[in-house]
Design brief:
The protein folds into 2 domains: 2-45; 62-290, 2-Layer Sandwich (Muramoyl-pentapeptide Carboxypeptidase, domain 2). Helix content is 42%, strand content 12%. The model is unreliable at 294-298 (pLDDT under 50). The protein is α+β, with helices and mostly antiparallel strands and 298 residues long.
Length: 298
């Protein structure tokens, strides 16, 4: 039977018309074979759950980069992996082109050391009359927990008929749960910043800091050309040192945290995780904290 089958194949190739037909369609055969090989490789690749997640992350990032989404989803930001580098938290020391808003900054005023050096480089290049206005840096989980419990208590007092479980659901609309936080401020890698004059008066960016409205989007249509220019300038000077702007808040920038890695398209690129962890009901630092004393008048 095998000899008969081979004989038929040889007879087919002996026909000149068959040879001409094969030559005219050889490119199609090659393309079909390559497509089949690629399909088999793709199916093999996505057979792994880990690889499927990795692929979906990059698809989501591509959709954002192409402009079909205005932000990366919280789901995929939360799934970005962090390989902690243990860069220490340090005091935010004075600089001639850096002004602090003491009303919004949590004390002690801490930030990751590498982030601090990057901000110094930005400040060094600012012209006279233009300064960085630091609005918020490191946000401790202990402070977040106090605010969280305060919001829950306020909701419970206003609505005595509901229990704590329902109050927690409502509290998520007013504050961030420190136990489920993926925010960059708890890592020391995020910073809220604006540009201001030498008197600390913030330039016109169209909204107040931490205002909740559609106008806070960095590329909002609800602001003037001058306000949009100020925002573009702020984003430009921060990007030069590798910072990423969170599109929904013109003042929020990050480096090294999950948000930074997600917007960079680096699913395994985070280097800053939460600086504190809860143990026995208390929050303790998991990275070095280098405090220094200084005289701000020098």
């Amino acid at each position: 039977m095998l000899d008969e089958f081979l004989g038929k194949i040889l007879d087919w190739f002996d026909s000149e018309s068959n040879i001409l037909w094969l030559k005219s369609h050889i490119i199609h055969f090659i393309i079909i074979v390559l497509l089949i090989v690629l399909l088999v490789c793709f199916l093999k690749y996505i057979s792994s759950k880990r690889r499927r997640s990795h692929l979906m992350f990059h698809i989501h990032h591509l959709i954002y980069k192409l402009g079909f989404r205005r932000t990366m989803s919280r789901r995929w930001i939360g799934r970005t992996h962090v390989h902690e580098c243990y860069d220490p938290l340090v005091d935010f020391l004075p600089h001639k082109h850096i002004i602090f808003n003491d009303e919004t900054i949590e004390q002690p005023n801490l930030i990751r050391k590498k982030v601090l050096f990057k901000l110094y480089k930005i400040a060094d290049r600012l012209p006279d009359g233009v300064n960085l206005l630091i609005l918020q840096t490191y946000r401790s989980k202990s402070m977040m927990n106090e605010k969280w419990e305060q919001v829950i208590n306020e909701i419970t007092a206003e609505n005595p008929e509901i229990g704590r479980h329902e109050a927690i659901k409502l509290a998520k609309f007013k504050a961030e749960d420190p136990k489920n936080s993926i925010g960059g401020h708890t890592t020391g890698g995020a910073i809220d910043v604006a540009l201001c004059n030498d008197n600390g008066v913030m330039f016109d960016f169209g909204t107040r800091f931490h205002e909740y409205s559609t106008a806070t989007w960095t590329k909002s249509r609800h602001i003037t050309k001058a306000q949009a220019k100020n925002r573009r300038t702020l984003v430009r000077v921060m990007r030069r040192q590798g910072f990423v702007n969170f599109p929904a808040e013109w003042w929020h920038f990050s480096y090294g945290d999950r948000t930074w890695a997600a917007y960079k398209g680096k699913r395994h690129g985070g280097i800053y995780g939460a600086a504190e962890v809860e143990m026995d009901g208390k929050y303790n630092y998991t990275i070095p904290v280098h405090r220094v004393t200084h005289d701000s008048n020098k």
